[in-house]
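LAB NOTEBOOK - FOLDING QUEUE
OPERATOR: T.R.
BATCH SIZE: 2
PURPOSE: Compare the predicted structure-token outputs for two unrelated chains run back to back under identical settings.
PRIORITY: normal
REVIEWER: second-year student, initials M.K.

ITEM 1
FIELD SEQUENCE / FIELD STRUCTURE:
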Amino acid sequence: MRLIGPVALSLVLVAPAWGVAQEAAPAAKEPPPPPRVEGSGEFAFVNSSGNADSTSLGIRGEVIYRPDPWLVKTRGAWVRLESDEELEAQSFVFLLRGERKVKPRLSVYGQYDYLRDLFAGLFHKNVVSGGLSFKVVESEQHELVLDGGLGWSSELRTVGEDVSTAVLTAGLGYKLKVTETTEFVEAVRYEQSLSRGDDWHLDNELSLAAKISTIFSLKVSNVIRYVNEPVAGFETTDMITSAALVAKF
């Protein structure tokens, strides 16, 4: 099953050679510094009627604060899907992350993740982790960031025994400025239990956003959550595809 986007995977494989080539080539134009505070809000709504009635609703928000040398990021997303007046899916995710630079491209981070998804068998999932983050590539057009660390995961399940375990975490973030108004982003996160070898998770999010004004953008995204050992009676893979209107401030 191909969960990691081909663009980001290729970059991971060629990053060392790319770094050497960058050192030999003339210095690339440095990207402009990001704003001290920025945020965004997304809203997606789809309704269909006729032979089948269905409604889907998605809301997402993010705020980033950069009090140098720190970076603080918080994000939340809620999704609801209803078909023929029957609730078929609903989930809520939340992230809080703090980073501090120790070198121009190297940072230490601490992160808290929360997930509630009854349709995947989870009342609550909490993960606290920390580690190192490194910018492999940083230019006006490309950005590639890798991170890795250790943490603790706790799951309150709807079926069977709850699970708490130490975990190894790894992440990849890639951003491509396709044009002046279009941006492609991929985020991959891997979580491996240190007490059970077959218990691992992989999340992959792809998005393409195009500006339609200085504030608003149209965004298409696809999120895949894969759990190698799901809650008993539930599927290994969840996928959410959406189109949304995004407002940045």
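ITEM 2
FIELD SEQUENCE / FIELD STRUCTURE:
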Amino acid sequence: MKQATTERNERTQKKQGYPEVTLIGWAQKPSYDKASHKLYWAREYSVEGVPQHSLNYDVRVLGRNGVLVMSMIGGMDQLPMIEANKSKILSFVEYNPTHRYSDFNADTDKVAAYGMAALVAGFAAAKVGLF
């Protein structure tokens, strides 16, 4: 992910006149809630010229036929607030019956060609063989 951030800086940020972005590391390491089929993680970034580090908090809600992607962007000082309210916010997110992850039918449904790591690092990284 750090390499991808560096490459994005070279490919787009600098060429389009945007400040350079640096991935500092995990603000929260990836974790998976088996009961709700939700995957969580957060990354900390620094942006050139901005004194406060930024937070990218990501959630993936697994479904029978796909994944719902949710991202919360803010300052690192907002991480405790997001963590404290995460369950309340995510309680509103649920697939309709027959579309839930728990409705998976091994006899008829396809299994995704990528795993949890690809959901965290991004599908592009999986496609180029990093996983």
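REVIEWER COMMENT (ITEM 2): Strands lie at 21-33, 38-47, 54-62, 67-75.
FOLLOW-UP: none requested
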